[in-house]
Amino acid sequence: MYAFSYQKVKSVADAAAAIGKNPDAKLLAGGQTLVASMKLRLANPGQVVDLGEVPELKGIKVSGNTVTIGAMSRHAEVASSAEVKKAIPALAALAGGIGDRMVRNMGTIGGSVANNDPAADYPAALVGLGATVHTNKRKIAADDFFKGMFETALQAGEIITAIEFPTAKRAAYMKFKNPASRYAIVGVFVADTAGGPRVAVTGAGPSVFRQKDMEKALASKFAADSVANVKQSDSGLNSDIHASAEYRAHLVTVMAKRAVAAAIG
Fold first, then answer.
1. Cβ(190)–Cβ(254) below 8 Å
2. pLDDT per position as a tens digit, 60-85
3. In sequence order, what DSSP letters do the residues of 6-36 get, joined into one string?
4. What is the CB-side half-sphere exposure of residue 56 using CA atoms within 13 A?
5. Which domains can be identified in the chain, with CATH numbers?
6. Alpha carbon separation from 90 to 86, 125, 168, 224 (Å, rounded)
7. Helix, strand or coil for residue 107?
8. Which residues neighbour 12 within 8 Å (Cβ) at sequence distance 6 or greater?
9. What pLDDT, in 10s, does the model give residues 22-32?
10. Are the C-beta atoms of residues 129 and 91 closer than 8 Å to each other?
């Protein structure tokens, strides 16, 4: 690990000021990616700004048909929240399947979303439910937030403060996980929303994406059979030691069928 300076802040304004003064600074949320990268000398921030004691970034609130989760809320908190379980049970279940207990007790929703790992679970929930990312500067629709591998719409000095999820009529998330890391080799989040069915795929490509053909099929009939014959192209999908692009394409259909069946119950 390279040498760096450390600053613990008490407010979003203080955090924004700190990273505004130093373009080399990095925000520390749960540290599940940043700290590991620093230990391996894959990341070399000159300054680390700790968000752990910023109260305005914490908490879960349900209001009407929306669930708003503070960016520093831990995965375990989302998974165990009675409010989330009641309003969007698929989201609570997704959070409960992230990593292992240590990861769930340290990792945060804001950190995961900002990092945008191609195999992360939360991006599928955001896109699948049509969520909105709140920052200290603006609101960004999930469809516009995830740009590519580890790339988001966040600008310099912009900090995620909360994620706002609309409730769905029914939803479910299914993933084929790496047995060691529990990252999604392919994960599919299906939601029957007020605006129609949404199908979001993570793990398969460089970034989360919507499967529009499956959405059209589900709009006609929300049933597992509707997506059974919808084939995902393997063009542009990830291919590595865990799974080929062809296998990932096959898994998209398999996981989508399982997610629809689980959503129907």
1. no
2. 999 999 999 999 999 999 999 999 99
3. EEE-SSHHHHHHHHHH-TTEEEESS-TTHHH
4. 13
5. 5-50 (3.30.43.10), 58-264 (3.30.465.10)
6. 10, 9, 10, 17
7. coil
8. 54, 56, 57, 136, 159, 161
9. 889 999 999 99
10. yes
